[in-house]
Specification:
This protein is of the alpha/beta class and 1457 residues long. It has 39 helices and 26 strands.
Length: 1457
């Protein structure tokens, strides 16, 4: 009866493990079944299916012989057990008392019983008897055994000797250990051994028909397992000239060579040219047992491995002999169900003669700058390639160069270390023929030292500073580092202290190949720790060094080469060199574990370096070069693995691969950290890049933090000693959960979209979102979670990839595109529930950081429903959402972030019509993108924006969320003000924006992340409120004294009882700051930065009378330093004046006023009470001051003069209408302009139109102090009644004054000189009266007398004047919007960076001839009332009318300008 599947193998093994066994089985009987136990059914299945591998037709040829065709199994030679005194524990080898023939019988019994599974009629096996008393007589004894075997077979009545197929096994060994000799000697040994066996094989060939002979060499097996074998073939005439090489590589290669020699001899011998007889060499390479395991102890493993070897084609017998019981039994395949011979294996002998290999792996490099630094650098971060004088390398056989120069097929030559061809340290030939890192560097410094040449080991002379050792693992690196340091110190050619050194360290392949044998020993922790020890030695002892730490390569792709049978590779060598990569199945847990360890090796090298451990000295750094992180197997044009990139062993690199590795390393060295190539494609043509001409240095962590990645140099990344209970003692490493709420900006819309892919903006790139994205790592993607993961790698909650808020990968990023504040509460509720439901989160114990950014979508729609999107509603919605977090979420710090300013959005979108989807402006953000410039809608937008921001500040500063010890809300203001980046051509850098020109790109998000992180570590009261997108923002570190995330309490910050006192400064957002390249000669090409002198003429509005309050007993004071057109007190951030704006362009401008004293008036010649008739006098005074000022170059300095006059003329025109007529008014101003024209070269004159003073009928709802003293009174105003003829006359005169002045821009006499221009600025022509929240006049714009301007009013006038100056003549704004905003200042455009004159506004000449444009919304305002005097007059008029009812008339003699 046949054996049952699944029970055969264990019964077989149990039999062999139980003392002597006689082969007494008769045909059809299985004596092993009695040995079986139920466990065998589960643990040792026999996988072969005899039906698939059997045949009903007897084979005619040995080359189509199947296992089912074999009728008889026999063996020759002795498999003798070791002596009883052996070193092995006798209790574990109960077979050792057996006689040699019995041991042999056990082997053939196993083989016979396996074959019985295919052919139940197989006969009882036989071991031929020999002369056991002379067991080592060699070939002579084998001849006796052969004769006895043939005789026994002929006498066996059950065997049809002529027609039955026989399997004969001939065991032998070689006492000279020829398997360890060099190839030439091995070949001679094989020839000699075959010659000694020829008599036996010839005899079998002649006497035995239909025979398959296994020639089994047990030389290595018996050597390592202490077996004694009865038939030794001794070649004493030529002992093995053993090289002494004991490395794993040498052992494996010589084993393969031994096998190859025998196979070549037998394949070409007469024994394999017949149809009924074949001899096949069955090699056995022995797998060295793991530490603590016993070596091979019994014949069962020999039998099973012999069977498996018979199942493999010639040259594919790569399984090592193993003592593991779980070794799988191989089966005949459906495609090849035969026992393999050389013929049916399609065996072709390898060529033993090799053509000389021509080295042609060269490249050309044509870099314009190959010079060293002008002076030897002292900083490694300023190191040029030509500054490097010494090169060195540490590592394993890939750096030693094993096989790099070997000829194809010359596998034994892989033992040769071609150090001169090594990618990182070889210096053979030159770059035109051999591409290596030193050969590239020698193009920059021909005197480079340290590279290796020729061949040899690490201690050879040619190795020099290549101290890599073949077979080395990470644990060997410290010894290599020590040896390298000593070599450099002791070499007289090296100036150890002064020479800059480049050291490349590459290790890890051997660690991965052996990982599965000892996972603890080769753990990622030990791997990284061993590298650290080596780097610590270099860091402590080597000055002036740049160390390349090359990531271990992605080794799993070696399987592709190993598994592709169509590629000619020595798989025995591959499998033995790297068993842990190659021996497991594709989907095995062991292979998955190896892949994970490979990644951890790579991550560990990053973590070791990126913490700044090796950046403590200015002359030393370590940089991870990741080009080997992902490596695809190079392919041929047929799609097969291209083994031309490998040495003949298909494991080490050929010179071709060394050249590619050198180019990959070179390019990595020049790529910025965070932007380094992590995947090297060996198929691409080699490309040697040149250093950046503007930044020619080797890239380090400190000099190349740019792009999307960042460097974090914080050394202290530890959490609190115990989990904190207070949010005010929360360290970054204490955070365990990260979350985010908001709109499309937080959802990540368009972050990763390509520049022209507008439709992709709908994609939510949550993994790249600044506050919650977790894609990649900090080196490549800067996000808040990636920063926090440097402190706590177990951080949870961050989003990855793309998708909606409901997707699993969104995790705790619950932001929804288009969300408004009214929807924030829903997001909060979803987030809270998700955190409660997630088993990975300990809701009550884990500390959480939650970032909220909302409001942009509200602004986009605010104009559609002013009530729904009011500031009050915004406040309520935000409060409700934060209340839920405060009420339900324990242990949380909430970042409340401001939204992007609408003015920034408008500038980007509307300023780039060729790049932005203008036709979709209304759809994308209607209320922000569609209003006209200077329109009332835009003013309202700015007002609501400020109100939103004030609401956020008010809510946080209320202290509402500071009632619990474990919760706080902190306002992070970095987004409040944005400085946009500008390219060299003056255009905005649109790479910071998605294709819709609204959403930020990844570049922008990276800056947001950095700014948010910096804000989180800044104390309240000292937080940065400006984001400069072009700035290099370094990631801050928690300080030793203040290691906490900042809150009000740990910042010692007290919220103000009321909003902080405002100043009336402005934010300067212009990017075009520079003056002309050379001083312009034409006023029509005058830039703001070209102006050197500023001056002003006028009345008390220019002297800034009453700009600040005075004591009640004092008369109003003139604050000339705050004057809108000439004041220079403070800076623009706190005081908006025309000179302070100009200081941004030219900090050295002259002429402005400061303070209140006449001595500091500068070139402010204005006089309180002045009229137009006084302008010529002021003009002469101004000319005199300029000529007498030694700091002013009258001929060459460009001068800006502002003339504003007429209010007092209007107040007194009724006293003498001829004297104060519009004609006289214009004549006096012309006289002043003529003086300036004749006396002052290089002058730009602003003439500001007089204010609109008519129609004084607005109810102000308040009272003013009208009894302050003044020099003159406004008699014409007191005589004018509502709807009276006098009032109509006042309006007419006002208009005539304005109309007369408006013509000065076009007057011919002022257009004759190239360096002189008069430009009328009409912003006062129509005026929007500033109103307060109750609809009345906002008195904060006016001084105490209710007539003059306050400091705030002067700031508004300065803004209006500046903006007028940048508008073309004929298109200037004729009204002034007094709604306060810090961002109202316009900027010179790249297309027209000049102050506008009539000539450089000529494209709009036609429109200008039609007169200045008055915005439609400004007309009714103009009709309704004026500013300053108008407002004052209204209040005075109302007061007069009211008092007439109550008191006698009063003489208003207190009003003058």
């Amino acid at each position: 009866m046949g054996l049952q599947p699944r029970i055969f193998l264990l019964g077989l093994l149990l039999l062999l493990g139980q003392g002597p066994t006689q082969a007494t089985t008769s045909p059809g009987e299985n004596t092993l079944e009695k040995q079986l136990s139920p466990e065998a059914l589960r643990n040792f299945p026999f996988p072969c299916n005899p039906k698939k591998s059997g045949s009903s037709v007897p084979p005619k040829s040995v080359h189509s012989l199947r296992p089912s065709d074999i009728k008889f199994v026999a063996a020759m030679g002795y498999v003798e057990p070791p002596p009883a005194s052996g070193t092995v524990d006798l209790e574990k080898q109960n077979w050792t008392d057996r006689r040699p023939q019995q041991a042999c019988m056990e082997v053939v019994t196993v083989l016979s019983d396996i074959i019985r599974y295919f052919n139940p009629s197989v006969l009882r096996p036989l071991c031929a008897p020999g002369k056991t008393v002379v067991a080592h007589a060699g070939a002579q004894d084998l001849q006796v055994q052969a004769e006895g075997l043939v005789r026994s077979m002929k006498e066996n009545q059950q065997l049809d000797f002529q027609n039955d197929w026989k399997l004969i096994n001939v065991f032998f060994s070689n006492t000279s250990q020829g398997h360890l000799c060099p190839f030439a000697q091995q070949h001679r040994h094989a020839v000699g051994s075959l010659h000694m066996l020829a008599g036996v094989l010839d005899y079998l060939d002649q006497e035995v028909p239909k025979a398959f002979v296994n020639l089994v060499d047990l030389s290595e097996v018996l050597l390592v397992s202490h077996w004694h074998q009865g038939t030794h073939l001794s070649l004493a005439d030529e002992p093995c000239r053993y090289s002494g090489e004991t490395s794993k590589l040498s052992e494996i290669v010589t084993q393969w060579s031994h096998q190859e020699s025998w196979e070549q001899l037998l394949a070409s011998s007469k024994y394999n040219k017949q149809e009924s007889f074949a001899v096949v060499f069955q090699p056995f390479s022995y797998k060295t047992p793991a530490l603590g395991d016993q070596p091979l102890q019994d014949p069962r493993t020999l039998a099973l491995n012999l069977w498996n070897s018979m199942m493999e084609p010639a040259r594919q017998k790569d399984e090592p002999l193993s003592a593991e019981d779980g070794s799988p039994v191989k089966c005949p395949s459906q495609e090849n169900p035969y026992l393999f011979t050389y013929k049916n294996s399609n065996y072709l002998p390898r060529l033993l003669k090799f053509e000389e290999l021509e080295v042609t792996e060269g490249v050309e490099i044509r870099c314009p700058d190959k010079d060293p630094s002008n002076m030897i650098p002292t900083s490694v971060h300023r190191l040029k390639l030509a500054d490097i004088k010494v090169i060195a390398a540490l590592g394993d056989s890939l750096t030693a160069g094993n096989g790099a120069g070997s000829k194809p097929g010359d596998i034994l030559d892989v033992l040769t270390q071609y150090r001169g061809l090594s990618w990182s340290i070889g210096g053979d030939h030159n770059l035109s023929s051999v591409t290596t890192l030193p050969n590239i560097l020698r193009e920059f410094n021909p005197n480079l030292k340290g590279f290796s040449t020729g061949t040899g080991k690490e201690n050879s002379a040619g190795a020099f500073l290549n101290q890599a050792v073949a077979g080395a693992r990470a644990e060997d690196l410290p010894v290599q580092a020590r040896r390298l340091v000593d070599l450099m110190k002791n070499d007289t050619k090296i100036n150890f202290q002064e020479d800059w050194k480049l050291i490349t360290l590459f290790i890890g392949g051997n660690d991965l190949c052996d990982f599965c044998d000892d996972p603890a020993h080769f753990s990622p922790h030990n791997f990284t720790n061993n590298i650290r020890k080596a780097l610590d030695i270099l860091h402590a002892e080597v000055p002036r060094a740049f160390v390349n730490l090359v990531k271990v390569l992605e080794i799993i792709n070696l399987r592709e080469l190993y598994q592709e049978k169509r590629v000619n590779c020595p798989r025995l060598i591959l499998r033995n060199l790297c068993p842990c990569v190659l021996k497991f199945d594709d989907n095995s847990t062991e292979l998955a574990s190896l892949v994970e360890v490979n990644k951890k090796y790579q991550e560990g090298t990053h973590q070791l370096v990126e913490n700044g451990r090796y950046d403590t000295r200015e002359d030393f750094t370590v940089v991870v070069q990741p080009f080997f992180e992902k490596v695809d197997m190079p392919k041929t044009s047929e799609g097969l693995p291209d083994n031309s990139f490998f040495a003949p062993d298909c494991f080490h690199f050929s010179s071709k691969a060394h050249a590619h590795a050198a180019s990959g390393l070179w390019n990595n060295m020049l790529e910025p950290v965070g932007q380094k190539t992590t995947q090297h494609n060996f198929e691409y043509k080699m490309n040697i890049t040149c250093p950046n001409q503007f930044w020619p240095f080797l890239s380090t962590y400190k000099n190349s933090v740019q792009g999307h990645g960042s460097e974090l140099l914080c050394r202290d990344r530890a959490p609190s000693a115990s989990p904190p209970t207070s949010v005010h003692t929360l360290r970054p490493a204490d955070l365990q959960v990260v979350a985010a709420l908001g709109d499309s900006l937080t959802a990540g819309n368009g972050i990763g979209s390509k520049p022209d892919d507008l439709s992709d903006v709908t994609t939510q790139y949550r993994g790249l979102s600044y506050s919650s994205g977790g894609d990649g790592s900090l080196e490549t993607v800067t996000t808040l979670p990636n920063i926090l993961r440097k402190f706590n790698r177990n951080l949870r909650g961050y989003a990855v990839g793309t998708g909606n808020a409901s997707d699993a990968n969104a995790f705790f990023n619950q932001a929804v595109p288009g969300a408004k504040t009214e929807e924030l509460m829903s997001q909060v509720q979803t987030l809270v529930q998700r955190m409660k439901d997630d088993h990975r989160v300990n809701f009550h114990e884990d500390w959480k950081i939650i970032t909220v950014l909302i409001g942009g979508s509200d602004l986009c729609d605010y104009c559609t429903d002013l009530n729904r999107y009011s500031a009050a509603r915004f406040f309520d919605h935000l409060r409700n959402a934060l209340d839920i977090l405060h009420r339900e979420v324990p242990r949380a710090l909430v970042n409340l972030v401001d939204f992007m300013s609408p003015s920034v959005m408008r500038r980007v979108f509307l300023g780039n019509p060729d790049k932005c989807p203008m036709q979709q402006a209304s759809t994308l953000c209607h209320c922000v993108l569609t209003p006209w410039e200077s329109s009332q809608d835009l003013a309202r937008l700015e007002a609501i924006t400020q109100a939103y921001q004030s609401s956020m500040r008010e809510l946080v500063e209320s202290g509402r969320y500071d009632t619990r010890e474990d919760f706080s809300v902190v306002l992070q203001p970095f987004f409040s003000n944005i400085r946009l980046p500008v390219l060299e051509d003056g255009h905005l850098d649109m790479s910071f924006f998605a294709p819709d020109c609204i959403h930020p790109s990844q570049k922008f998000h990276s800056q947001l992340s950095r700014a948010l992180w910096v804000n989180m570590l800044e104390p309240l009261g000292g937080k940065t409120d400006t984001l400069d997108l072009a700035a290099n923002i370094s990631l801050s570190c928690p300080s030793q004294d203040e290691p906490f995330l900042r809150t009000p309490r740990n910042s010692n910050y007290t919220y103000p009882d009321k909003p902080a006192v405002e100043n009336w400064g402005s934010d300067f957002l212009c990017t075009e700051w520079n003056p002309s390249n050379s001083i312009p000669t034409s006023v029509h090409e005058l830039r703001p930065g070209d102006i050197k002198v500023v001056a002003a003429m006028g009345d008390s509005l220019t002297t800034a009378l009453g700009a600040r309050p005075s004591n009640s007993s004092d008369l109003p004071m003139s604050w000339r330093g705050l004057s809108w057109s000439i004041g220079g007190d403070g800076i623009l951030d706190t005081h908006t004046t025309l000179p302070n704006i100009l200081k941004k362009f030219n900090p050295h401008i002259l002429g402005f006023s400061t303070g209140t004293l006449e001595e500091t008036a500068g070139l402010n010649v204005a006089i309180e009470g002045a009229r137009a008739r006084d302008m010529p006098t002021q003009a002469w005074d101004l000319v005199k001051r300029m000529k007498n000022n030694p700091k002013i170059d009258l001929e060459n300095d460009w001068k800006l003069i502002t003339l504003f006059i007429g209010s007092n003329d209007m107040c007194h025109y009724c006293e003498n209408q001829e004297t104060h007529s519009a004609g006289e008014y214009i004549r006096h101003i012309q006289q002043a302009l003529d003086i300036l024209y004749e006396e002052l070269p290089r002058a730009f004159i602003n003439v500001v139109e007089v204010m609109e003073l008519a129609s004084l009928h607005q109810d102000q709802g308040g009272k003013c102090n009208l009894l302050l003293a003044a020099q003159n009174n406004c008699t014409c105003l007191t005589r004018s009644q509502e709807n009276s003829l006098e009032m109509q006359e006042l309006k007419k005169m006002n208009w005539n004054f304005q109309s007369g002045i408006s013509r000065f821009s076009y007057w011919h006499q002022y257009l004759q000189r190239e360096d002189f221009a008069v430009v009328v600025q009409p912003f006062f022509q129509n005026t929007l009266v500033p109103l307060n929240s109750r609809g009345g006049a906002d008195l904060t714009f006016f001084s105490e007398d209710c007539f003059h301007f306050s400091e705030r009013g002067h700031a508004e006038m300065a803004i209006a004047l500046w903006n007028n100056m940048l508008e073309p003549v004929g298109r200037k704004t004729t009204s002034n919007n007094f709604t306060h905003s810090r961002t109202k200042l316009k900027c010179p455009s790249p297309e027209s960076p000049y102050l506008h004159t009539l000539r450089n506004s000529q494209l709009l000449q036609d429109q200008s001839e039609a007169g200045p444009i008055v915005l439609s919304w400004a007309v009714p305002v103009a009709a309704g009332g004026g500013l300053a005097l108008g407002v004052g007059a209204v209040m005075a008029w109302r007061a007069i009318r009211g008092r007439r009812r109550e008191n006698p008339p009063m003489n208003l003699n207190t009003m003058s300008f």
